[in-house]
Amino acid sequence: MNIAILSRNRNLYSTKRLVEAGEQRGHQVRVLDHLKCYVVIHPGKPTIHYNGEEVLDVDAIIPRIGASVTFYGAAIVRQFEMMKIFSAVESQAIVRSRDKLRSMQILSRSGIDLPVTGFARDLKDKQDLLKTVGGAPLVMKLLEGTQGLGVVLAETKKAAESVLDAFHGLNANILIQEFIKEAKGEDIRAFIVDGKIVGAMIRRSKEGEFRSNLHRGGTAEIIKLTREERAVALKATKALGLSIAGVDMLRSERGPLVLEVNSSPGLEGIEKATGVDIAGKIIEFIEKNAGKKNRGKDKIGV
């Protein structure tokens, strides 16, 4: 099978592991920088070109689309789909999951518990907005943030108002969220491939930091999920129409709360924490599904 990995950097751990796993299973694997791909639209004959040549003989793609280039990356994935090439993650699901507000609205509609969240454009009622999420301390997130960037903990009401005013002055869209004190700087990531949890880890923030992201100095170790946590992670993934996902959850007094569902979750932290060949699981998923004539229409509706 010929597999293309859409990645801007072939030296990233996740990209290298997917290439390695694919080649170990006898496949031809190439890495395409999706920003260097371009779309050519002909009636009835969609094509993609790369480095001046038409991309041919691809059976499946694995999108590794960065958050900052979601629009263009998803357009390239969509063009491959138009060419009836199997994508490990569908373009619509990528776009849906990358919009923090949209994804939380969908998760909420599906009955999945989340930290209480507020969103507003006009801040004339900011006092009531802050009150709806339980007041300070609270968490404030840029809609476009990733890997813990653009996330602020406002410990007092005055600090929260100042951050709101600052972001509003920059014309930035932000979410405000209740702070789950009992989580104590820990969160859980469940890694899902094809409707199955293939690995899970607990991440702990470094001293003096409330964000547990590994890119921010957090640590991780393998964990066994509770039955409720497993059910929530799988339900969240299904709600967003994702075949591959990293579901981030907090343990709270009212049960697991979903923070985010990532459509391009990194492999390094989860593989090192669990010792599981996650990249191999993704290649197995492609082997099972590539070439099927009818994968099924996206039914999420939003």
Shape: globular
Q: What's the order of the H and E elements?
A: EHEEEEEHEHHEHEEHEEEEHEEHH
CATH class of the largest domain: Alpha Beta
Let me know the largest β-sheet.
5 strands, antiparallel
Count of separate DSSP helical elements: 9
The amount of helix comes to 25-40%
Average of pLDDT: 90
Topology:
Layout: E1 2-6, H1 13-24, E2 28-32, E3 37-40, E4 47-50, E5 53-54, E6 60-63, H2 70-82, E7 86-87, H3 91-98, H4 100-109, E8 117-119, H5 126-132, E9 138-142, E10 151-154, H6 157-169, E11 174-178, E12 186-193, E13 196-204, E14 219-222, H7 227-239, E15 244-252, E16 255-262, H8 268-274, H9 278-289
Parallel strand pairs: 1-2, 1-6, 6-7
Antiparallel strand pairs: 3-4, 4-5, 8-11, 9-10, 9-11, 12-13, 12-15, 13-14, 15-16
Helix pairs in contact: 1-9, 2-3
Explained architecture:
With 302 residues, this protein is of the alpha+beta class. The protein has 9 helices and 16 strands. The protein has 3 domains: 95 residues, Rossmann fold, CATH 3.40.50.20; 63 residues, Dna Ligase, domain 1 (2-Layer Sandwich); 108 residues, ATP-grasp fold, B domain (D-amino Acid Aminotransferase, Chain A, domain 1, 2-Layer Sandwich). The chain has a 5-stranded antiparallel β-sheet, sandwiched between helices. Helix 1 packs across helix 9 and helix 2 runs antiparallel to helix 3. The longest helix is centred in the N-terminal third of the chain and has 13 residues.
